[in-house]
Structure formats: C-alpha cells, structure tokens
Amino acid sequence: MGREKVIEVQRNKTIERIIERHSKSLGQVKLIPVGDEEFSDQVTMVGADSANGVLLVENPSPVSRRHLAVAEKVKIEGVVDGLLTWFYATKYAEYQEKGETYLKFPYPQTIYRLQRRAAFRVAMPSTQPAWAIFVTPTAEKQMKKARIADISATGCAIAFRRGKDPNLPIGVAIDKLVVDITGELKFTTDAFIRNRRAGEKGEALYGLEFIDLPVQDEQKLTKLIMKFQRGWLRFFSRD
Fold it and tell me: Which of 10, 28, 187, 216 is the most exposed place for a label (fewest CB within 10 A)?
C-alpha cells in the first residue's frame, strides 16, 4: 500500500515552474483565510510574473474578501500535476486592469506538496544500465554521473564507487537531474538529497527524492518499475 507525505519545495526555480505551469493552464486555486476556513473561495490563477515574483488570481466573492482582509495569513491551495499543492501569504494587494479587479500575491519562499510515495522500490537489474547525471549543488558545480542502484516512482538511490564520493550536502536540491535508464526511459526532474549511507564494496549511496516529476513521466516510470519487478519475481521463482 502507498502512503502520503508532505514535501517542502524551497528552490526558487522549481517554485517558479510550478506556479507558471498552473497559471498558463488557468488552474484553480482556493483562497483560504487561515483560522476562518469556512469562508474560503475558489478562483482562477490568471497570471504569473517570475521576474517580479508576483502572481494574479481572480477577485473572490465579497464575503471571502472581508475575511481574507482580517486574516493573519492566507493559504493558497490547488492541485498541480495531480498533487495537492499549497503555500501561505501574509500580504496581498488589489490590482486593476481593464476594469477588472484581481488580487496580487508574492511568490512564496516555500511550497508544500502532498506526494504519494510508491509502494514498490526495485533494485536495478544488473543487465540494465541506468544513470543519474547532474551538476552538484555545491560551489564547485561539478558534473557527475552516478549509477542508479534502485528506483521508485518518487525517487532513487545513486551509487558512487569507493574514493569517488562527491560528499553531496544532505537536504539540498539538485536542479535538472537527468535519469537515463538506457533503452527504456529518460527524463529530467529536480530532486532532494535525502540521505547518505554506505553501500556494498565501499560505495557511497545517496537517496534522492524527485520533485515536481511530470505526471506522464511518473506513469511511464511506474510501468517500468512493475516490469522490473516482474523480472525479479521470475528470477527468484526459478527452480
């Protein structure tokens, strides 16, 4: 069975992509006055300006506006890429354009996403080359290519040989991680470095969690994981 967890996104570029994608699709968001939730209102996100760090939403109902005005903070909540996503704002401004009224909110420093963790994590078959390619989130900005040891729909473990450990910082995000499962699937996503542990033969293993993985890539990855799992079941069921 799967379970859900809240992940925090604190990378500016990732937050910009989430907001801009939702804005371009004229996605719905709910404006929730924190502490007075029954007076929330659902509106459309109609614009996003990453250069100035502001987003525009439709003007909510007069009743909701009154409660938003006295709330200490506002929760902005919507479903983006199939994931419940939300952030908070302590201020907003009214914006007029062509006789229409909108609300203008600043981009958040943190976005929260309710992510379902996959039930299955499989070891990469020894006959299947799979690589993670990325630039280290360090001052040196080194290009690295690491073997993928295991993978799930929400993350993977990458392995560095003895003496090749780049000492990646834990809790930091990697921008544009390329996952290349040779001949099967290739996609690019951001990822958090969740942990580091010792592997076999002195390898250093890092656990990565995907951030903002597009739904289509997640579906393809899930199918591939099930394929690998069936292969492992056949292997272990042989006489």
Answer: 216
